[in-house]
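Fill in residues.
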């Protein structure tokens, strides 16, 4: 019975312990669920905070957009204001004042509204950040409490295990004592009572601990529910603030739209008023223009009539003089040619007489020889079968016929169509002396004189030019094409033909195209007065830069068109490549003058250019460079050509000039160059000339500095020549072998590059450059060289 009671008690204890464990497990599962819910709520709160942050950023973006719209409106209003200034200056002042006041008021309102919205946003963000920090701290505290509860649960499990171990020990003790149960029943009953008391105490203690744990869990659950309520309140507050931010953003957008509508209405009113003023001004201006135009037309008609009469008279006089000169020259030339032809006719008649006698004697011998050899030969007719020779059929050389085409009875000895009788033909040597009395059938027997001319100029010219063609092949050459050359259609076509021919000879070509003439003409029309240059350099304003961009595109198109025409006419084709090869930098303020958008080349993409010209392309550069920030600048095209040639280590740089100058030695000089034309100088001589005329080119920026105002106040023609010489010398300093300043005459470039003559302009070479032909060595120049 004791054992049975003991077993029952143990069963009850085990059941109580298992029940306590199950309750504890259920509580732990509930706490785990609560923890997961809290974590999800934290994530939801974080997402809501992110959403609130995003909405705040959207509000900032809307504010920034409103500011940009306000700025764009200001820009539009300023442009409108500039247009108004061109038509009515007095009305513009009044409109500008009213508009500026209105803009200032609206801008101040917008600034105040934006400042208030920004202050509210910053305060709200600071408060939100503070609450987020507090929520994080509370979250950390809750996690610490959960960890403490977990530690208490682990301690309770350890105590339960110790209780089980104690029960096991008691069971072993009871099993040992059961052997003496009958002898110590009373002791067992007392011990059982004691054990029951202890077990009851332990159970009550465990129940008390469990009750305490449950109370703690209940307190934690209450705290967590309070935290949930707090988080929900914070989310509601964040949602409310986000709605307030949206409302503020919508209000700002509405204000901006209202401002835009008001400004558009104001603009429409101003445009309507300006249109009325414009119509009035236009009518008045058209009336005045019509009156002035009628006066100008009358004056121009009178001047044109006088000018046409004068030009007609002058043209008539010039034509008469030219006709007289040409007639005199043609008459003298024709007389000489007729005399030469008569002499040749006499010799031909004598030759024909001797041929007749030779043919009569040799006809039979030729026939017998033909029959013996049985070969198909060209027969020579006998005198009996040959047609009679008349004076009208005498053969004359081509060179005689070319000069006396009007003589009716003379014909050429060469013909593409065989019209003579085949039996009357004979074979003779191209180079043969006069026929002897004895006829010979060997056509290669004598060769003292040729029937064809030996002084044909093309052969000697080609032979003389071949060393230059070989020397220039695969070399790099930079051409500068000025804007005034593009305006002269005839010279421009001939120069592009010559440039295309140099490309066919294998030269690598880079073209630097200028447009100074076109830009000056456009600016003169726009501004109504001639544009001025400082030290030969243009002060590039916004208007001038815009005109330059347009004219540079036109110049590039014209060069590409003409070069394509020239190459296709010669059966060739190539690509013309242009792009952003130049990095430029502003001149800034030089000698107290702000040159604004005028600059100088800083770097050149030589690798790309060399790659293009090495594969046969032509690289085209315009006088536009770009800064590292993408700002367009005006570059002097002559300076660009010299800079490009130096950067590419070109063999030549060629400057074309529509108004060329040449140099000659001073009349006061006693050397061999006195009063003689000088076309070949060295770099040191060029530096002496530039120093003599007070010009110095800055080594880095290429800016021209004149030593005195009188030196800079030279004629445009002389100043242009000296500037080209200065930039050519700068190119020589950078490694270029030779620089040429030549005229734009037909064939001048070819004669300058491929003949032994001295050319059409000035050639500047390195001091140690070896002259290609001896005559260049006599072109030394003294410091007192003057311009012709």
């Amino acid at each position: 019975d004791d054992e049975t009671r003991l077993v029952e008690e143990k069963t009850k204890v085990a059941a109580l312990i298992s029940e306590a464990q199950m309750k504890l497990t259920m509580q732990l599962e509930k706490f785990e669920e609560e923890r997961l819910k809290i974590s999800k709520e934290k994530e939801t709160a974080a997402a809501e905070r992110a959403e609130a942050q995003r909405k705040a950023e959207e509000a900032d973006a809307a504010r920034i957009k409103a500011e940009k719209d306000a700025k764009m409106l200001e820009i539009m209003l300023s442009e409108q204001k500039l247009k108004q200034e061109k038509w009515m200056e007095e009305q513009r002042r009044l409109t500008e004042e009213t508009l500026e006041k209105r803009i200032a008021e609206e801008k101040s309102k917008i600034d105040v509204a934006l400042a208030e919205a920004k202050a509210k946003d910053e305060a709200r963000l600071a408060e939100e950040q503070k609450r987020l920090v507090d929520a994080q701290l509370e979250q950390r505290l809750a996690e610490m409490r959960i960890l403490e509860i977990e530690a208490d649960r682990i301690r309770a499990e350890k105590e339960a295990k110790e209780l089980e171990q104690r029960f096991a020990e008691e069971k072993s003790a009871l099993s040992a004592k059961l052997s003496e149960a009958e002898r110590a029943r009373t002791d067992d009953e007392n011990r059982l009572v004691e054990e029951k008391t202890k077990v009851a105490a332990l159970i009550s203690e465990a129940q008390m601990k469990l009750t305490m744990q449950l109370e703690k869990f209940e307190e934690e659950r209450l705290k967590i529910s309070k935290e949930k309520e707090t988080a929900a309140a914070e989310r509601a507050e964040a949602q409310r603030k986000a709605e307030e931010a949206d409302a503020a953003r919508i209000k700002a957008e509405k204000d901006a739209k209202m401002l835009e509508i008001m400004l558009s209405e104001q603009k429409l009113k101003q445009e309507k008023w300006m249109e009325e003023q414009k119509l009035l001004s236009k009518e008045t201006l058209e009336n005045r223009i019509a009156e002035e135009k009628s006066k100008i037309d009358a004056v121009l008609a009178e001047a044109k009539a006088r000018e046409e009469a004068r030009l007609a008279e002058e043209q008539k006089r010039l034509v008469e003089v030219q006709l007289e000169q040409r007639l005199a020259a043609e008459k003298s030339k024709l007389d000489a040619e007729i005399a030469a032809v008569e002499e040749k006719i006499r010799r031909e008649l004598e030759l024909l007489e001797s041929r007749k006698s030779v043919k009569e004697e040799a006809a039979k011998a030729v026939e017998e020889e033909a029959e013996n050899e049985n070969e198909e030969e060209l027969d020579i007719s006998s005198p009996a079968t040959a047609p009679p020779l008349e004076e009208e059929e005498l053969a004359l050389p081509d060179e005689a016929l070319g000069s006396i085409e009007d003589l009716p009875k003379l014909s050429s000895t060469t013909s593409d169509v065989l019209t003579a009788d085949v039996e009357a033909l004979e074979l003779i040597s191209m180079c043969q002396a006069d026929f002897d009395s004895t006829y010979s059938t060997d056509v290669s027997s004598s060769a003292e004189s040729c029937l064809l001319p030996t002084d044909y100029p093309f052969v000697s010219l080609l032979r003389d030019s071949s060393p230059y063609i070989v020397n220039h092949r695969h070399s790099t050459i930079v051409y500068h094409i000025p804007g005034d050359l593009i305006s002269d259609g005839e010279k421009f076509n001939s120069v592009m033909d010559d440039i295309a021919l140099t490309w066919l000879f294998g030269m690598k070509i880079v073209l630097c195209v200028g447009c100074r003439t076109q830009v000056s003409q456009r600016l003169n029309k726009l501004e109504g007065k001639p544009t001025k240059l400082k030290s030969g350099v243009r002060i590039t304003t916004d208007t001038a830069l815009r005109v330059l961009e347009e004219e540079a595109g036109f110049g590039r198109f014209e060069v590409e068109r003409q070069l394509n025409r020239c190459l296709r006419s010669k059966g060739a084709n190539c690509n013309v490549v242009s792009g952003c090869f130049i990095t430029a930098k502003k001149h800034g303020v030089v000698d107290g003058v702000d040159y604004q958008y005028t600059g100088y080349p800083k770097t050149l993409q030589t690798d790309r250019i060399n790659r293009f010209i090495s594969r046969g392309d032509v690289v085209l550069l315009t006088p536009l460079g770009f800064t590292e920030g993408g700002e367009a600048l005006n570059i002097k095209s002559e300076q660009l050509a010299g800079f490009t040639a130096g950067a590419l280590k070109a063999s030549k740089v060629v400057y074309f000039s529509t108004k060329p100058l040449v140099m000659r030695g001073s009349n006061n000089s006693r050397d061999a160059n006195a009063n003689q034309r000088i076309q070949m100088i060295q770099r040191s001589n060029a530096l002496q000339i530039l120093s003599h005329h007070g010009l110095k080119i800055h080594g880095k920026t290429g800016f021209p500095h004149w030593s005195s105002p009188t030196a800079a106040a030279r004629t445009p023609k002389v100043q242009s020549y000296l500037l080209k010489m200065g930039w050519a010398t700068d190119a020589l300093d950078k490694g270029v072998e030779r620089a040429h300043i030549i005229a734009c005459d037909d064939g001048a470039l070819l004669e300058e590059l491929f003949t032994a003559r001295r050319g059409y302009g000035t050639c500047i070479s390195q001091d140690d450059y070896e002259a290609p032909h001896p005559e260049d060595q006599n072109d030394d120049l003294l410091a007192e060289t003057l311009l012709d």
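The first strand starts at residue 395 and ends at 396.
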